[in-house]
Each structure stands twice: as structure tokens, then as C-alpha cells.
Amino acid sequence: MQKIVLLTGAGISAESGLGTFRDAGGIWSQYDLEEVATPEGFARNPALVHSFYNARRANALDAAPNAAHEALARLERDWPGEVVLITQNVDDLHERAGHNRVIHMHGELTQALCAACGAHWEAPREMFAEDPCPECGEPATRPDIVWFGEMPYDMDLIERHIASASLFASIGTSGQVFPAAGFVMQANAAGAETVELNLEASELSGMFDERHEGPASDVVPQWVEQMLETL
Ligand code: APR
């Protein structure tokens, strides 16, 4: 039975009220990513970085999953083959929609990391640079988010999943940030069927076998229904 590998981006959480990055008025038009999403920015001004992520964490915790998150959780539940979800998103809306296997390649707002000893723990709703690490006591806590210039999580695992996918579906991403932007090329090279579901054409649209254009809360449930009807 077909193994399905899913990749999601900020577009799947847009209708839950969480901002995207590169649409008009997006997060990177409001904040300088060099200041809030790089290790150098954190070293320069940890308080600014924590306030940026405290606001995003509060938004994410107060948001609700939408029909697209719920449809993917249904696909994971009802599809007889393996379903693996890789997300670039740092919110936990997939998990709150009931999705079990989620690989957060860019980290998670609900997790904290110690920049001194590497310990991970559940993040409180608000975090501050002077908060002591529960493991080593150092005031070196940071959001457990993969910043530009840092290596995403689980890349070996991700590449193995893509190499063995029968179908690769990319949902709600502009395809402008590597390594995620390279996944469709790897999937095509592995002989997988490739599908893009997005509000509009992305940088990578020409690389997909099939495309569904529209808001995720419309096109994702329709696509999942179509997939389950093939069973
Ligand atoms: N439904 C479906 N797609 C949507 C919707 C929607 N309601 N709204 C926006 N989109 C699409 C946009 O057309 C765009 O192609 O979602 C995509 C969002 O693109 P970006 O804002 O670039 O977000 P993303 O692709 O997830 O960014 C990747 O960049 O800044 C880093 O780490 C950050 O994970 C992020 C990565």
C-alpha cells in the first residue's frame, strides 16, 4: 500500500489565525529575521528574541486546528499504508488535531532548549533569557526553534522517508527555504507521485505531478476524501 509523506508549511495554519512569513503583511515584513531568527540575533539581544517567540507561542496556544489539520489526521488514521508528516511549522496544531507522527524539522514553540548544556524541556507560556536551565542552572534558555544557519532536526530520518515515499504531498509552503524546498526534487528522483496543495502557485509548482489550488481548509479535506475514495 502506498507510503504517503506529507510536508506542511505556514499556509496550513493561516486559517487558524497564525501568520505566514512571505505573504503580504507576513511575519518577515514585520520583523527583521536577522534579529529574531538567527543565533547571532539571539546573542545580540536575547530579550527581543524571547519577546518575539513569546508572542508567537501565545498566538499558537490560543489558536485552534482547522479543517486541513483535521483532514491530515484523518488520513493518518484511515490510510492503510504508512503516513509520515514533516512540518516546517513550530505550532502544535497538527498534534491538537489528533495527528500522531509529526516531525518538526524547525523545532517547536512548546519546547525550550538550553544554549549552554543542550537540555530540552516543555516551554512555559512565556520564557525569558535569564530563566535558569532546569538541568544546569545556567541562565541560557532559548526557544527550541531551528534558526537560519542552524541544521534542521531529523534530516537523516526525513531523507529516508522521502526516498521510500510512493506519494509526496506539499501543503501550504512557498518552497523558498531549504532543505524543505528540495524535498520535491528528492521525491521525484525517488519515483514518487508528487502533489502540491497551496493557495497559489509557489516557486516549485512546476515540479509537481498534480496541483490543487485554494485555501487549505477547502483543498486539503477534498484531497483527503479523494485519496480515501481510491481505497
Ligand atoms: N491555504 C493554503 N496555503 C496558503 C494559505 C491558505 N489559507 N495562506 C497562505 N498560503 C500559502 C502561501 O501562498 C505561501 O505559498 O502558504 C505559503 C506560505 O509561505 P511562507 O510564508 O514562505 O511560509 P513557509 O513556506 O512555511 O516558510 C518556510 O521559512 O521563515 C522560515 O522557518 C520559517 O518554516 C518557515 C520557513
TrEMBL record:
NAD(+) binds at residues 9-28, 88-91, 172-174, 198-200, 216. CDD domains: SIRT5_Af1_CobB. Its cofactor is Zn(2+). Substrate binds at residues 53, 56. Zn(2+) binds at residues 114, 117, 133, 136. Its main location: cytoplasm. InterPro entries: DHS-like_NAD/FAD-binding_dom, NAD-dep_sirtuin_deacylases, Sirtuin, Sirtuin_cat_small_dom_sf, Sirtuin_class_III, Ssirtuin_cat_dom. The active site is at 106 (proton acceptor). It is found in: Cytoplasm. The keyword Cell inner membrane does not apply. One of its GO terms (molecular function) is zinc ion binding. It catalyses: N(6)-succinyl-L-lysyl-[protein] + NAD(+) + H2O = 2''-O-succinyl-ADP-D-ribose + nicotinamide + L-lysyl-[protein]; N(6)-acetyl-L-lysyl-[protein] + NAD(+) + H2O = 2''-O-acetyl-ADP-D-ribose + nicotinamide + L-lysyl-[protein]. Binds 1 zinc ion per subunit. Residues 1-231 form the Deacetylase sirtuin-type domain. GO terms for cellular component: cytoplasm. Keywords: Cytoplasm, Metal-binding, NAD, Transferase, Zinc. Pfam families: SIR2 (PF02146). NAD-dependent lysine deacetylase and desuccinylase that specifically removes acetyl and succinyl groups on target proteins. Modulates the activities of several proteins which are inactive in their acylated form. Belongs to the sirtuin family. Class III subfamily. 2 residues (Tyr-53 and Arg-56) present in a large hydrophobic pocket are probably involved in substrate specificity. They are important for desuccinylation activity, but dispensable for deacetylation activity. This is NAD-dependent protein deacylase. It comes from Aliiruegeria haliotis. The lineage of its organism: Bacteria, Pseudomonadati, Pseudomonadota, Alphaproteobacteria, Rhodobacterales.
